[in-house]
Design a protein that fits this description.
This protein has 7 helices and 20 strands. By secondary structure, the protein is of the alpha+beta class.
Length: about 425
């Protein structure tokens, strides 16, 4: 789900945070209001969101656990987990408004004595270490101190009965079953369960949640305008840095967002045209590989989404995106095109999908950038044009007539040639 990492970047595509929170309450429990989910009894143990929102990544798994609103004095929460067989995992806390408070990415977790981490750095895995090593993390109530202890997250100050904070675990490209951490309440009098089991409720089933999704559409306003081409070429559609905004229009709320990621987005209306996206690909490294030596990102992807419901249609991860000889990708967004044939010709593909009012949102996601990566979205300062800052690492789309696209692909043109022909179309 989305990240607060782009809060200092110029935002053109805006998601009202309060409406997004209301949407989550509707889908999660069938009651509108940002605190509606908080007044129900807690769920004892980890559970998956019944309908993932906030533009989730379909190649990731999301788990959350409710935290006590009023723990005993001097208590903290202990999280005993394993380094997972995933490209990335993290622990993140969220307050009563579903805004992110604090986070620990996998590479920041120190392993327990006798165990080793599977990470060597922010973007560098350690293939010599098998997953399964142990770590112990803690969640404390309040705000982080200046000199914070290792392996510790904080809940923030928006925790008071009956509202509860939540702890989330994200896992990208998991390999097999995910072993979820053990979570206990550590008090001066000894360990306890987070809640009395007799006070807990069962999590909402996905099928039941999906039935009640209609009120979300009614709660949302008209969508922001779809992207239009530049005055120089109306067929070219630049991506823009994505950021959520608060009720007052300021970037003070990042509902449901991943603090380890940054995003660019392109709002689109359904049409007969094919959308073709071109850009320079960052390097990445698989969990069990030793190359490249200095990956630029931990992970990147493209996802097509329902702009107003904030649900994902489909995502294509970095490992599934072909590159040309110049290190560029070409991603096709259209329904009813043969994905296997496109991939054989050097294209990745995504469906436009069934989206409310024909409004889609195509998102380019970067996850944990190396400090010296010149194409990191976080480099785009407020008021800057992304392409003047990160160059062709910023994706660029072209709206291509379907007949022209199909003819060029059948003729055996390279993806870059197809992009050029589409951009030159009248």
């Amino acid at each position: 789900m989305l990240s607060a990492a782009s809060r200092n970047a110029r935002c053109h595509h805006r998601l009202p945070a309060a409406l997004a929170r209301a949407a989550v309450a509707v889908i999660a429990i069938g009651a509108v209001g940002p605190l509606a989910a908080q007044v129900l009894p807690p769920v004892c143990g980890w559970y998956e969101p019944p309908v993932p929102l906030a533009y989730p990544e379909t190649n990731a798994r999301y788990y959350q656990i409710d935290l006590p609103a009023q723990p005993p004095a001097g208590a903290r929460i202990r999280v005993e987990g394993e380094f997972l067989a995933t490209r990335y995992f993290s622990l993140q806390t969220y307050d009563a408004r579903f805004d992110p408070v604090d986070h620990l990415a996998d590479y920041r977790l120190r392993a327990d004595s006798g165990s080793r981490s599977t990470l060597l750095g922010p973007t560098v895995s350690n293939p010599a270490v098998a997953p399964g090593g142990r770590y112990t993390a803690y969640v404390r109530y309040g705000t982080p101190p200046r000199n914070r202890p290792r392996n510790t997250l904080y809940t923030g100050t928006r925790v008071a009965a009956p509202v509860r904070a939540r702890l989330w675990l994200r896992a990208y490209l998991p390999e097999g079953r995910i072993k979820l951490p053990k979570v206990v309440l550590e008090t001066p009098d000894g360990d306890r369960p987070l809640f009395d089991p007799a006070s807990c409720r069962d999590p909402i089933k996905p099928a039941a949640a999906a039935v009640d999704s209609t009120p979300v559409a009614a709660a949302l306003p008209s969508a922001s305008p779809a992207a239009t081409g530049s005055s120089a070429n109306p067929r070219l559609l630049p991506f823009e840095v994505f950021q959520a905004v608060g009720d007052d229009g300021e970037a003070n709320s990042q509902f449901g967002l991943n603090q380890d990621a940054a995003y660019m987005a392109l709002a689109l209306s359904r049409s007969d045209d094919v959308i073709l996206v071109q850009g320079r690909a960052p390097t990445f490294r698989e969990r069990d590989q030793a190359f490249p030596l200095r990956p630029e990102l931990r992970y990147w992807s493209f996802c097509q989404n329902d702009e107003q419901r904030t649900t994902a249609v489909a995502c294509v991860p970095d490992r599934a995106i072909p590159l040309d000889a110049d290190g560029r990708y070409h991603v096709v967004l259209a329904d009813d095109l043969p994905g296997a044939q496109l991939r054989a010709r050097g294209f990745a593909s995504l469906p436009f999908g069934s989206v409310r009012d024909g409004r889609g949102l195509l998102i380019y996601r970067q996850l944990i950038a190396a400090s010296d990566f010149e194409g990191a979205i976080q480099r785009v300062d407020d008021g800057s044009d992304p392409r003047t800052v990160i160059g062709d690492y910023a994706p660029l789309a072209v709206r291509c007539p379907r007949n022209l696209f199909s003819a060029r692909v059948r003729a055996g043109d390279t993806p870059a040639s197809v992009f050029t022909a589409c951009a030159a179309a009248p």
